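Margin note: ligand = adenosine-5'-triphosphate.
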Amino acid sequence: MIEVEGLVVSRGGRRVIEGCDFVVPKGGILAVLGANGVGKTTLLMTLIGVHRPDAGRCTVGGRTGYVPQLYDVAFSYTAMDIALMGRARHVGLFGAPRQRDYAVVRRFFALMGIADLEERTFNTLSGGQRQLVMIAQALASECEVLILDEPCAALDYKNQRIVIDLLDRLSREHDLTVVFTTHAPQHAVEIASDVLLMYPSAPPLGGARADVLNAANLSALYGVPIGRADFVGREAYTYAPLYGHAGDTAR
Ligand SMILES: Nc1ncnc2c1ncn2[C@@H]1O[C@H](COP(=O)(O)OP(=O)(O)OP(=O)(O)O)[C@@H](O)[C@H]1O
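Resulting structure:
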């Protein structure tokens, strides 16, 4: 469970988050949406204790895993080495990973369709492949709360599906509490129980997905007209194109 009350956070001497309140129940999924630079990463870093709030309260109940937006490592670790780092609290400070640790990582690699990357050097993987390995690392920690910064940003449609479905499944079957940021409202439509909309000059708006996620709020959030459509019988959002495609005009 996560409880945030009256949260105020500054970066570089400037207030970035002001008056943020929300609750995510155990097993809930919160999607955080907002324009570039509005403070989504700042909020996540505050949840995991990296940034200190100027005011307010922020309680995260349970072992927490974090998946950053971008990740590079200094040494030639393999994808397996990187994912095994998620097992640190199970392995202990001077211990070596055991059979079970490998088995846990391999289970998530298989679920995410990246079993073939196990022996590859992490830094030679594509951005999307690295993102999948980092998510496997966090899941391998067997955390109770998982916080992910744009987990699908570098992923193709199929891999977005895999990650979004996996988060949904883990929250349903293992009561995993999830917070993720995204620039794709569709990810919120698909799995979020709760949504937090972060505005540049107004307090964030949070609540149950059905109450908060709608075309009017999304249009105000991004400053472009966003419409609701139904896509194969499901709620979907899309922004209106600014210009017609060149091929649409009469020649
Ligand atoms: N190290 C820093 N020092 C000063 N200001 C910072 C620092 N890091 C971020 N900021 C500022 O804090 C604000 C919030 O940044 P943050 O990274 O939280 O935004 P975001 O919503 O995650 O953006 P994006 O969608 O582009 O990832 C921005 O205005 C940014 O310029």
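The pocket of adenosine-5'-triphosphate is lined by residues 11-12, 16, 34, 36-42 (CB under 6 Å).
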